[in-house]
Amino acid sequence: MPKPVTLRTLVEHRANASAFSCLTAYDASLARCADAAGVDVLLVGDSLGMVLQGHSDTLAVTLDDMIYHTRCVASGRQHSLLMADLPFMTNVTTEQILHSAGALMRAGAQMVKLEGEAWLAEAVTALARRGVPVCVHMGLTPQSVHAFGGYRVQGRDEVQAQHLIEAAQTLEAAGAAVILLECVPRVLAQRLHAAVSVPVIGIGAGPEVDGQILVMHDMLGATSGRVPRFVRNFLAGSGSLQDAFRAYHEAVRERRFPADEHCF
Ligand SMILES: Nc1nc(=O)c2c([nH]1)NC[C@@H]1CN(c3ccc(C(=O)N[C@@H](CCC(=O)O)C(=O)O)cc3)CN21
Ligand SMILES: CC(C)C(=O)C(=O)O
Ligand SMILES: [Mg+2]
User: Fold this and answer.
1) What residues form the catalytic site here (predicted)?
2) 206 falls within a domain
3) Which of 3, 105, 116, 239 lies in the 20 to 30 Å Cα band around 59?
């Protein structure tokens, strides 16, 4: 029987310089399958607005959608750590953040993830004080796609890069348990990782972080439309879904994924 994955497990991975695997999940059956394959963290991502609902961004997703899918995944998961996203505009005030996070935790989440930067510090502290582990999602934050003018690599210039590193340090000091970095140059991820002591999860951020995450539909080749460059199809060459999840888990653990062609 594998041990359940907890926040402590992620901290130990960072301390041991060993990598952990994360995948999005939205339903009980595939959550059970990924969990059985050894995937360390399951994220109920607001990417469900794109891969389940068919929108071109994540903005239409509601807190009720997230609660529903968190319940579904919670009933399938056994050992994996369950993280859930706060969707667009459920983060307006600290009070609303506490309320939204409370609803996700009651639905079965064990950690919540919020998109943002240093301005989240007060809410992060409020959540941490109440026993809610928080992951802050930085870099390419898809809920800001219209402010960015597209899904673009973030932190390419030195001013932006330094700003992101300082924000991560502020959030760690505020009580963030984990940082997730999306679509940044590999060297920035490496610098940010060295500047904080909490576990860092990357997507399109290169191999020099502690955890890797992908959208499940992307790594199964089930996404309609353009797939980001940091994605690898793990179903191609696998005999079953569970084999594909295991191949991903092992490639991450052994740091064979991401490779150079998946990095910015
Ligand atoms: N299916 C899916 N996969 C994801 O990774 C994902 C979602 N949906 N929905 C929410 C966000 C949106 N994401 C995206 C979507 C596209 C790119 C993309 O096309 N990026 C370009 C980089 C462009 C540049 O160089 O600035 C790429 O080539 O990968 C990146 C992240 C990540 N998240
Ligand atoms: C891509 C991951 C990090 C995410 O936030 C999501 O799936 O919503
Ligand atoms: Mg998300």
Assistant:
1) 182
2) yes
3) 105
Cα 211 to ligand 3 centroid, rounded to whole Å: 16
Q: Report the atom number in ligand 2 closest to the C-alpha of 47.
A: 8
Q: What is the Å distance from ligand 2's center to 47 Cα?
A: 6
Using the structure block, give the residue that is written with the tokens 């595939």.
Answer: 30
Check whether 47 is labelled as a binding-site residue. Answer: yes
pLDDT at 225: 85
Supply the range of the domain harboring residue 77: 7-262
The answer to whether the annotation marks 238 as part of a ligand binding site is no
- Number of structural domains, the chain? 1
Predicted-complex ipTM score: 0.96
- 3-state DSSP assignment of residue 225: coil
| Of 26, 85, 86, best ligand 2 pocket probe by most atoms within 8 Å of the beta carbon | 85
Instruction: Show Cβ contacts of residue 27 under 8 Å, excluding neighbours closer than 6 positions.
Output: 69, 72, 73, 76
Under the phi-then-psi rule, with left for phi > 0, alpha for psi from -120 to 50, and beta for the rest, what region is 63? alpha
Element (H, E) at 21: strand 20-24
Contacts with 155 (C-beta within 8 Å, 6 or more apart), sequence order: 139, 161, 164, 184, 185, 188
- pLDDT profile of the chain (264 residues), mean per 10: 92 98 98 98 98 97 99 98 98 98 98 98 98 98 98 97 98 98 98 98 98 98 92 96 98 98 98
Cβ count near 131 (within 10 Å): 7
Residue 15 maps to which CATH number? 3.20.20.60
